Amino acid sequence: MFCPKCRGEFQDTVTSCEHCKVELVAERPGEDMFSSPDAMAAALKGKELEAFMVGSYVDLAEAQKRLAEQRIPTVMVGEENQEIEASMHARIYLATETSRIPEVRELLEKPWKEGAPVGGLMLHKELALDADTCPACNTTVPPEASECPECGLFLGDPDAQE
């Protein structure tokens, strides 16, 4: 018996994976979707995604690795219609399934509040501590600004048109 989530192997008498809280399957699952960014991108293809972080490729790759360790699949996506050159985007986002956003928020919010670098974590309005100051560096932010003028933290609506 095998866990379809963590791919653990169990004795035939076991029916569920205690760690993942899912029922076991009889056949060994295919490639682990967390084995590479390409495998995660393939697993997320066609699903409803939401961007939750914007930043450099290096920062996003590190966040992607940390989230994969927590079994949360992510994919890097470029801003639609904002290619500077072929395959070069003005901004790069890290996205996951919309249903996983609360879990991602919970995992990233604590280290972010403690000052750990997590790139351009995009906070939704319900997470903003004070609308007049940046929650990352406490700098005063003009009401019309979508990013902190000091640290660059994205504070606006990621779905809004610029």
Q: How many structural domains does the protein architecture include?
A: 2
**Rg value:** 18 Å
* Beta-strand content: 15-25%
Oligomer: single chain
| Total strand segments | 8
User: Which spans have pLDDT < 50 for at least 5 consecutive residues?
Assistant: 123-130
Largest sheet: 4 strands, antiparallel
Helical percent range? 10-25%
> Looking at the structure, what is the overall shape?
elongated
Order of strands across the main sheet: 4-7-3-8
Averaged pLDDT:
77
The N- and C-terminal alpha carbons lie at a distance of 51 Å
Secondary-structure class: alpha+beta
The number of helices is 3
Order of SSEs: EEHEHEEEEHE
List the helices and strands and how they pair.
Layout: E1 16-17, E2 22-23, H1 37-44, E3 49-55, H2 57-69, E4 75-78, E5 83-85, E6 88-89, E7 92-97, H3 101-113, E8 120-121
Antiparallel strand pairs: 1-2, 3-7, 3-8, 4-7, 5-6
Give an account of the 3D structure.
This protein is an alpha+beta fold and 162 residues long. It folds into two domains: 1-30, no CATH class; 33-162, no CATH class. 21% of the residues lie in helices and 17% in strands. The protein contains three helices and eight strands, in the order E-E-H-E-H-E-E-E-E-H-E. It has helices spanning 37-44, 57-69, 101-113, and strands spanning 16-17, 22-23, 49-55, 75-78, 83-85, 88-89, 92-97, 120-121. The strands form three sheets. It has a four-stranded antiparallel beta sheet with strand order 4-7-3-8. A two-stranded antiparallel sheet has the order 1-2. A two-stranded antiparallel ribbon has the order 5-6. The longest helix is centred in the middle third of the chain and has 13 residues, at 57-69. Mean pLDDT is 77; it is low at 123-130.
